[in-house]
Amino acid sequence: MKNIFFGLLAVFFFSNLSAQTLPENDKTEFSTEALNQRIQDTDGKVTTVGDIFGKHKGKVIVLDIWATWCPDCITGFPELKKIQKKYPEAVYLFFSLDRIGKEEVWKNGIEKYELSGEHYWFNTDWKNDFDNFIDLNWIPRYMVIDQTGKIAHYYSIHADDPRMIQMLEKTLKN
Q1: Is 0.90 surpassed by the pTM of this model?
Q2: How many domains does the chain have?
Q3: Starting at the edge strand that comes first in sequence, how are the strands of the sheet with 141-145 ordered?
Q4: Residue 79: inside a domain, yes or no?
């Protein structure tokens, strides 16, 4: 009887787990709320997502949303590093979802995984105006932002996603 109970419990538990679902719509422009989301750099300076994107206007951005506690993020770093090598003219931004109060964990993760690029930390709960706008439901999450600040590629959970690479190449040629 015990085995049947645990078997049913396992079926119920695993049937209610759902993997990420693709967003219904690919967004091409960020909302004001998303751009106004506060985020901090490694020196502790608080800025906004919009200010970060604005300082790179005219350049293509590859955005990686990640966390040190995320095994999929960590296993994706080798592919991302290959992309960085192949497309060095892009700007690589890392937005961390490490938990509130875990600043040192985040900074140590940057060093431990030897992540090259600009690093920022939301220092908020998982859900914030930026994450809500982009329909964040899984990390890592990769996006490509074009030279004008518009979203060229909205959704990838693998750094080597062929659709993302194709859009990165196309955007870099413009």
Answers
A1: no
A2: 1
A3: 46-48, 38-41, 118-121, 91-96, 61-66, 141-145, 151-156
A4: yes
What letter does residue 99 receive in the DSSP assignment? P
Q: If you count DSSP H runs as helices and E runs as strands, how many of each does the chain have, helices first?
A: 7, 7
| Contact call for residues 59 and 147 (beta carbons, < 8 A) | yes
Identify whether 104 is part of a domain. Answer: yes
CATH of the domain at 122: 3.40.30.10
Per-residue pLDDT of the chain (174 residues; tens, 9 = 90+): 555 544 444 434 333 334 556 666 789 999 999 999 999 999 999 999 999 999 999 999 999 999 999 999 999 999 999 999 999 999 999 999 998 888 999 999 999 999 999 999 998 877 899 999 999 999 999 999 999 999 999 999 999 999 999 999 999 998
